[in-house]
Amino acid sequence: MPPFKKQLEQDRPLIGLWQALASGYSAEICARQGFDWLLLDAEHSPNDMQTLLSQAQAIAPFECEVITRVPFGEPVVIKQYLDMGLHTLLVPMVETAEHAEALVRACRYPPHGIRGVSSATSRGANFGVNTNYLHEANDMVTLIVQIESTKGVENIDEIAAVEGIDAMFIGPSDLAASMGLLGQPLHADVTEAIGKAKAAMDRAGKPAGIFALNPDHARQCIADGFQFLSVGTDIGLIISGAQKVLGEVRAE
Ligand code: 3PY
Ligand code: MG
Questions:
Q1: Owning domain of residue 87
Q2: What pTM, to 2 d.p., does this model score?
Q3: How many structural domains compose the chain?
Q4: Alpha helices, DSSP H only, in the chain?
Q5: Residue 87 annotated among the catalytic residues of the structure
Q6: Taking CA atoms, which of 105, 106, 211, 243 is between 20 and 30 Å from 187?
Q7: Whose CA is nearest to atom 4 of ligand 1?
Q8: Which ligand 1 atom sits nearest the alpha carbon of residue 175?
Q9: Which ligand 1 atom is the nearest neighbour of the CA of 148?
């Protein structure tokens, strides 16, 4: 598959699902359903390098992009993820252009950045079989930053202007929390802030993604022109399916 930044050039929204179960087994089930992308969440879910690896391997046979959310935006973590072939990264809570620039450098080999070199033993380089990896790797990476705080929204024009930031993604729940609206990501003030952030992404020509909170919200986000969006979580699907079947059987 082409790098995710190229996939984002399509004129249809790319639909994804959050993976919070940290399981290769359930990741394979989800990958078989036709989502454009699955997000492996190492920020809020019990993932380590081995669980991320087994999920990435489970998804690999399918036409489905693996996006991985790092626990925090830091070069050592980014190096490990890229070496493992997790070339599409989502970095939470990016609030300044300086942080965004540091993330870009972490993703690139010298002289364009500071990524350490370990191609022959890394899954990212096809274990050395891709002999040109060192020269192709920078192009294979898609770096997506999350805008999910008032500070991030205030600084969005500067962050969006950073060369090497390939896309931006809004986290409505953290944004709401930072606005004093904890637990109210659909509050009108949050919607207004998201609209401003989306307009800035459009001005900068950066593809915009969002975590949609329910199917109605997802449809609205598509109408608003978001290029990629998550429409649910694996855990949410289990809960809704379980409650539905139980309710049907127990219905009076
Ligand atoms: C948020 O809404 O804060 C997110 O990070 C999306 O999961
Ligand atoms: Mg968040």
A1: 4-250
A2: 0.98
A3: 1
A4: 4-7, 24-31, 49-59, 75-83, 97-107, 133-140, 150-154, 156-160, 172-178, 188-204, 215-223, 234-250
A5: no
A6: 243
A7: 171
A8: 3
A9: 3
